[in-house]
Amino acid sequence: MPVNVPVNVLALAEAEARALLQERAEQARWIAPQFELSALDATPGRRSDAPLACAQPVSVEPLETRFATRMKWAVICTDAKADASGWRREVVVKARVSAQVLVMADEVPAGQPIAAEQLRLERRDVSATTDAISDTEAVVGRTGRSALRTGQMLARRLLLAPVLVQRGQGVGIQAGHAGIVVTAPGEALEAGREGEVIRVRNTRSGKVIRARVIDAGLVEPQAMGASTSDQSRPARD
């Protein structure tokens, strides 16, 4: 006969939340992430603080996990015994996440490429800044969408990739098929960053095409890339 086992719903929800936050920190490549969590039983209409038990393994399901500062989990006992219907508890987990991330060591005007010596690592609260950055290589050479202040924590949304193709620049139009790559000469009619789609004139045929920037001075016809991830720019004269 199955035996009821005591269940600590707060600890179970907190463990799931911690595992999720650790996974997100690894994906963000943060250095030395730390987590401080607190859990509270937030079950609607809960009338008893009596200890809980379950004769079956309980399940923990995420309800709201978008923001680390307030996540909600359901801890569920589905009891297989005929004389019991099981139970469900909702738990709110609040977290504070910190990590060693990049901050500005100097002021940098908008549009000016960022140099490695203008960056430093500091432990900062990243609970609400999921795109904070620890990797210097992911920042050097990029520019700020606006001026960056000394001490400002960097986030991916604040940065722009460097311009790889300038308007009027000669470029190579690279096309490949069945392992054969052909490059034709062209002229960029717009400036572009990596992944952006710009207008390019084939200087041999005179034809204007839309091409994706793939490297400095190098583009490929738009049809060769994944259309679902285009970063197309509005046409400019």
Describe how the helices and strands are arranged.
Layout: E1 5-7, H1 9-28, E2 31-41, E3 52-54, E4 59-64, E5 71-77, E6 87-104, E7 119-125, E8 143-144, E9 159-160, E10 163-165, E11 170-177, E12 180-188, E13 192-193, E14 196-202, E15 208-215, E16 218-221, E17 231-232
Parallel strand pairs: 11-16, 14-17
Antiparallel strand pairs: 1-3, 2-6, 4-5, 5-6, 6-7, 8-9, 10-13, 11-12, 12-14, 14-15, 15-16
Task: Give an account of the 3D structure.
The structure is a single chain. The protein has 237 residues and is mainly beta. The protein folds into 3 domains: 5-97, no CATH class; 99-160, Alpha-Beta Complex (Type Iii Antifreeze Protein Isoform Hplc 12), CATH 3.90.1210; 163-232, SH3 type barrels, CATH 2.30.30. Helix content is 8%, strand content 43%. The chain has one helix spanning 9-28, and strands spanning 5-7, 31-41, 52-54, 59-64, 71-77, 87-104, 119-125, 143-144, 159-160, 163-165, 170-177, 180-188, 192-193, 196-202, 208-215, 218-221, 231-232. The N and C termini lie far apart (79 Å). Mean pLDDT is 88; it is low at 226-230.
